[in-house]
Each structure stands twice: as C-alpha cells, then as structure tokens.
Design brief:
The chain has one helix at 25-28, and strands at 3-6, 9-12, 17-23, 33-38, 45-50, 56-58, 66-71, 76-81, 90-98, 101-104, 109-113. It is 4% helix and 53% strand.
Length: 114
C-alpha cells in the first residue's frame, strides 16, 4: 500500500476536518501531491495540490476554505477543511504520479450534515 489516508468522518455544516495521507517515500519524495474528491453521482474532481517545493493550488470550489500542506519529515500530506458545506460530502482521494503510474489512496468518506 503506497498511500494511506485517515481523518474522514461526519461533521456538521460549518465544522472542520483534517485529512491525512501518509505516502511511501518512493512516491512522496520530490513529488507533487494532490487531493481529489468524488461526490455521490458525480465524477471525481481535483481539489488541491502541493508541489515538492510547497507551492499550492486549489479548485475554485474549495479555495479559501481548504488548505493543503505537507510534512516532508513524515512523508505526509494534509487537507484541512474549514467551514464545511453539505456539498463537500464526498469520498476524498490522495493522489500522486510516479513513473507514469497513478497512485490513489483508499478514499475516506467525508459527510457534512446540514
């Protein structure tokens, strides 16, 4: 297993959750890490990315409320989700590409109740 996620769960609207993704060093080191999400009945969509140098980028739908970060000492990437809305309910996937291969986490469920 190369990407191990944790931190999903049920939260009320307006609340916060933090997702973690621990990666094997061969995937994490020097690599851009991304978070995607897939809401019920919808296609998987990109949410955020962080480069090996720490630069970040966000989808418009999460900008200002989600923060992606990485801890290189732990080979771990995080997604801090604040002021959550019910439409954020989805399965969240950590993702990386190495040697033209796509690696995905198992996808913890995040459910935001109204």
């Amino acid at each position: 297993v190369r990407l191990v996620e944790s931190g999903g769960g049920l939260v009320q609207a307006g609340g916060s959750l933090r997702l973690s993704c621990a990666a094997s060093g061969s995937i994490y080191s020097g690599n851009t890490m991304r978070w995607y999400r897939q809401a019920p009945g919808k296609q998987r969509e990109w949410a955020a990315r962080v480069t090996s140098g720490g630069s970040t980028d966000y989808a418009d739908s999460v900008k200002g409320r989600f923060t992606i970060s990485r801890d290189n000492a732990k080979n771990t990437v995080y997604l801090q989700m604040n002021r959550l809305k019910p439409e954020a309910t989805a399965i969240y996937y950590c993702h990386a590409v190495r040697n033209c291969l796509n690696y995905w986490g198992q996808g913890p469920q995040v459910t935001v109740s109204s």
